[in-house]
């Protein structure tokens, strides 16, 4: 048996969440069985995870399950008190006993963003104009703000939210591109989105289909989605969001097919 640990806090600092007993949960997915033990005292979170074996690629999965269990506890506490607290897991301790700060990232998403660039700390070169324009657009367009928030939450919350968040972000883009098409005319809006972003219906359905059950609180199908499928959902939305930002940056002009070939 291999044991790893996660450490965190309930925020804000003035919160005082206390769990009188250890909360446990067991998962068996992709041939890996893991048991979690969650303790919260004075809003300090301690999670112990016991596995049959450990591989470095398990870290994201372990983090997601730890977040899910800890949020289940804190949300129930908040509901009873009428509070709005957040769960923050900041440290992972592997089998070697070395603490590592939790930093969730997918480096392969970075080159997908061409609409603007963010300089590294201490780097002064580069034109920040496009970045500022994107920030202003996010403030001016509530649908863009919410769509971007949905996408970033796919990193910081439970993997179970990925299908709904990705589909909802895509719906937000559809509404921004074709706000005149509502209710029974939504299909015309989807057609306009496909033309604007140069993507096929099949490409879009890969994102929208897995969300149909979860959007109506039916989580049964989410459990059958593989990790690779969840990652592909996020990657496709990163590409489509970037194309939308490029479209807005270019003043609503058609995206040249030489730069943005058909997404099939």
Distance between the termini: 45 Å
Low-confidence stretches: none
Discrete helix count: 7
Tell me, briefly, the overall form.
Answer: elongated
Query: Strand content of the residues, in percent?
Result: 15-25%
> How many domains, as an integer?
2
Largest sheet strand order: 2-3-4-1-5-6
Class from secondary-structure proportions: alpha+beta
How many beta-strand elements? 6
Level of helix content? 40-55%
| H-E order | EEEEHEEHHHHHH
Mean pLDDT: 90
Gyration radius (Cα, Å) is 21 Å
Major beta-sheet overview: 6 strands, antiparallel
Describe this structure in words.
With 264 residues, the chain is of the alpha+beta class. The protein has 2 domains: 2-101; 107-249. Helix content is 41%, strand content 17%. The chain is built from 7 helices and 6 strands; from the N terminus they run E-E-E-E-H-E-E-H-H-H-H-H-H. The chain has helices at 59-81, 129-140, 142-156, 162-177, 186-197, 201-208, 227-249; strands spanning 2-11, 23-29, 32-41, 44-51, 86-93, 99-101. A 6-stranded antiparallel sheet has the order 2-3-4-1-5-6, covered by helices on one side. A hairpin with a 2-residue loop joins strand 2 and strand 3. Helix 2 (129-140) packs across helix 3 (142-156), helix 4 (162-177) packs across helix 5 and helix 4 (162-177) runs parallel beside helix 7 (227-249). The chain is elongated.
Give the SSE layout:
Blueprint: E1 2-11, E2 23-29, E3 32-41, E4 44-51, H1 59-81, E5 86-93, E6 99-101, H2 129-140, H3 142-156, H4 162-177, H5 186-197, H6 201-208, H7 227-249
Antiparallel strand pairs: 1-4, 1-5, 2-3, 3-4, 5-6
Helix pairs in contact: 2-3, 3-4, 4-5, 4-7
């Amino acid at each position: 048996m291999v044991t790893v640990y996660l450490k965190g806090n309930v925020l804000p600092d003035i919160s005082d969440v206390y769990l009188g007993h250890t909360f446990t949960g067991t998962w068996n997915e992709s041939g890996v069985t893991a048991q979690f033990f969650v303790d919260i005292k004075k809003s300090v979170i301690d999670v112990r995870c016991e596995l049959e074996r450990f591989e470095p690629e398990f870290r994201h999965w372990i983090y997601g399950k730890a977040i899910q269990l800890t949020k289940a506890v804190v949300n129930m506490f908040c509901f009873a008190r009428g509070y709005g607290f957040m769960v923050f897991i900041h440290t992972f301790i592997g089998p070697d006993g070395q603490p590592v700060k939790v930093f969730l990232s997918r480096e392969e998403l970075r080159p997908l963003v061409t609409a603007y660039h963010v300089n590294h700390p201490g780097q002064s070169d580069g034109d920040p104009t496009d970045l500022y324009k994107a920030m202003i657009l996010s403030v001016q367009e509530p649908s863009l703000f919410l769509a971007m928030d949905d996408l970033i939450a796919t990193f910081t919350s439970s993997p179970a939210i990925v299908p709904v968040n990705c589909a909802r972000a895509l719906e937000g883009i559809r509404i921004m591109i074709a706000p005149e098409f509502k209710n029974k005319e939504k299909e015309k809006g989807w057609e306009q989105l496909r033309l604007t972003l140069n993507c096929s219906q099949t490409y879009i359905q890969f994102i929208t289909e897995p969300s149909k059950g979860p959007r109506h609180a039916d989580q049964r199908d989410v459990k059958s989605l593989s990790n690779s499928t969840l990652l592909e959902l996020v990657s496709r939305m990163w590409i489509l969001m970037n194309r939308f930002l490029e479209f807005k940056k270019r003043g609503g002009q058609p995206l040249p097919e030489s730069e943005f070939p058909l997404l099939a």
